[in-house]
Amino acid sequence: MRQALVTGATGTVGHPLARLLAERGVRVRALVRDPGRAVLPAGVEVWPGDLTEGGTLRAAVQGCDTVFHTAGLPEQWLRDRSLFGRVNVDGTRALVEAALAEQVETFVHTSTMDVFERPRDLPFDESAIAEHPLHTAYERSKQQADRLVTAALGRGLPARFVHPSAVFGPGPTRPTALNRLLVDLARNKVPALPPGGMAVVLNEDLAAGQLRAAQAPVGSRYLFSDRFLELPEIAGLVKLAVPTARVPMTLAGPAAWALAGIGELTSKVTGRPPLLSFGELHFLGSELTPDARRARAELGWSPSETGDAVARTLRAFGVRLPPTGPV
Question: What's the number of domains the chain is made of?
């Protein structure tokens, strides 16, 4: 690998990947919409471009032997749901066409664990792709993007697929998604927890897995996940790092759905995301347990200790942690 394009290099998933590539001596080009505001690792080249403007992508890919596609909209709620299709589907399609035109040697697509058949309360692996339309607009957009990358294998796209669980970890921007939950728990800003939980993976561990997946055979798929945690367990890990944090009560299912309903109705008027959305409740209540044994066995991948990863993440976002050793 000599030169790589990374989409989403300013985000939670792409930023540690860009840094790891640069540290290993790879020339890294980051596709960014707003170069003036982009916060990137040292040695990474800023390349203006936008997934929703396909004409900017071929120039970005030109000269790169490898493309890591990590950009996308990960939210479970957007006022304008068509954005999921424009970014996650159409943006991926345009990048695939640019990669085919430039005949890249490696294309690593960051998909999601959601695209697999996922039996409730049972572990699942990479063996079966879901054929039915998925539940939320976000999930369906990722499903469509995965399908079009899969179809491009037949046209010569040298794609590998990365399927992370819920990603958290240090990042260059304000905390979002799971990171925001961790920080809010540390600062006692979460009055109650919805029922359910999620499988999690540290972004730095995922980056290491993405690099290893780039060397795997074309068409390979790998789940990357540390473990499944109920939300009170996540709050407990935060409390271990920040003793003043509390573990909030867990809402009963009907109360959580009622809260989501009120929030969704209010959001249609205000345009602001609800405190809790139907999509988030569906995700948490599905209690998905991905099995990452293939990545461990074939790639030699292993995740960090979860408690340490949570503490590092909180510290990165400005949460003060008590000293852990002699000063």
Answer: 1
**284 vs 79 pLDDT, higher one:** 284
Q: Which of 56, 303, 97 is nearest to 200 (CA)?
A: 303
CA distance 215 to 51: 25
Residues pairing with 230 in the sheet: 197
Tell me, yes or no, whether 110 lies in a domain. yes
**What tokens appear for 128 in the block?**
């079966």
Pair of tokens at residue 302? 């292993």
Burial 285-303 (b: 16+ CB within 10 A, else e): bbbbbbbbebbbeebebeb
Evaluate whether residue 263 is within a structural domain.
no
Smallest CA-to-CA distance from 80 within 265, 260, 268 is with 268
pTM of the model: 0.94
Can you give the pLDDT at residue 305? 96
- Considering the domain boundaries, does residue 266 fall inside one? no
Q: Express each pLDDT in 210-245 by its tens digit.
A: 999 999 999 999 999 999 999 999 999 999 999 999
CATH number at residue 41: 3.40.50.720
Q: Is the pLDDT of residue 165 over 50?
A: yes
- Quick check: is 99 in a domain? yes
**Domain span holding position 99:** 3-176+199-227+289-304
